[in-house]
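Researcher: Let's do a round of design. I'm pasting the structure tokens now; please hold your answer until I've finished.
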């Protein structure tokens, strides 16, 4: 197959999945361009490669979760005032103190969903593993019946456990999320009391919706409930590529002055 023919076939395949928004299936190369068949949702199964899509009439932002800002405590307002985000245009890359951009820190939960790259879900007997194309991020959601730990080890993506509410609805609760992460790209920060609840609902064989609730009595005056996110199942056998924070798409010379001023 010529390069032109391959590109045309790939474009047609992606458009077939686009619905009301064009689905982007990452930078990996598919090993099979056959589309998944539409149909009912499989029973208790989220496996596959998922990519976020837009939906007509739904809120979608590249930097935050809701049209209106969250209600903050005094602690939350004080910490938000220190944030210098570049995603909403307030600060340049040379001025930002966004930890993902300046330190290459993992984005944490739930911010990881803002990266416009797909993620893959696979299963073992005791866990659901989420493989994010962004920065080789791996997340383990335990499904063997254990509760959230009472005194969790602090992790970048926290400690997650999940259970099925019914055959198509899977609920994940996460605690022990590193405080150096931001809740979103706008710079809302959290304490060690953050608890994130994710509700995945398999709408049918091709579509998935995700609802996220953030609770933190130190930072948030009331729970912050994100607008629903929508995902489309990528073609079968789509292979994730790698997007590395260590230099694949960022020019770190922009941050040299910031790092020097901040103590390296």
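Researcher: That's everything. Go ahead.
Model: Designed sequence:
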């Amino acid at each position: 197959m010529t390069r032109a023919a391959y590109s045309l076939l790939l474009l047609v395949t992606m458009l077939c999945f686009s619905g009301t928004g064009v689905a982007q299936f990452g930078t990996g190369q598919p090993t099979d361009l056959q589309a998944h068949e539409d149909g009912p949702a499989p029973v208790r199964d989220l496996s596959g490669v998922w990519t976020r899509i837009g939906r007509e009439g739904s809120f979608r932002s590249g930097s935050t979760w809701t049209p209106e800002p969250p209600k903050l405590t005094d602690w939350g307002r004080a910490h938000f005032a220190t944030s210098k985000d570049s995603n909403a245009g307030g600060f340049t890359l040379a001025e930002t103190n966004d930890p993902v951009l300046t330190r290459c820190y993992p984005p944490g939960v739930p911010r990881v969903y803002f990266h416009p790259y797909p993620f893959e879900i696979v299963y073992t007997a005791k866990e659901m593993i989420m493989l994010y194309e962004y920065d080789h991020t791996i997340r383990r959601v335990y499904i063997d019946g254990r509760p959230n730990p009472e005194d969790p080890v602090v992790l970048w993506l926290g400690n997650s456990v999940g259970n099925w509410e019914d055959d198509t609805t899977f609920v994940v609760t996460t605690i022990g999320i590193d405080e150096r992460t931001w809740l979103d790209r706008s710079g809302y920060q959290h304490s060690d009391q953050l608890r994130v609840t994710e509700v995945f609902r398999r709408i049918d064989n091709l579509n998935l919706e995700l609802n996220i609730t953030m609770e933190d009595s130190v930072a948030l005056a009331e729970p912050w409930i994100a607008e629903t996110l929508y995902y489309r199942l990528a073609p079968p056998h789509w292979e994730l590529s790698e997007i590395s924070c260590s230099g694949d798409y960022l020019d770190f010379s922009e941050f040299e002055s910031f790092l020097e001023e901040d103590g390296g």
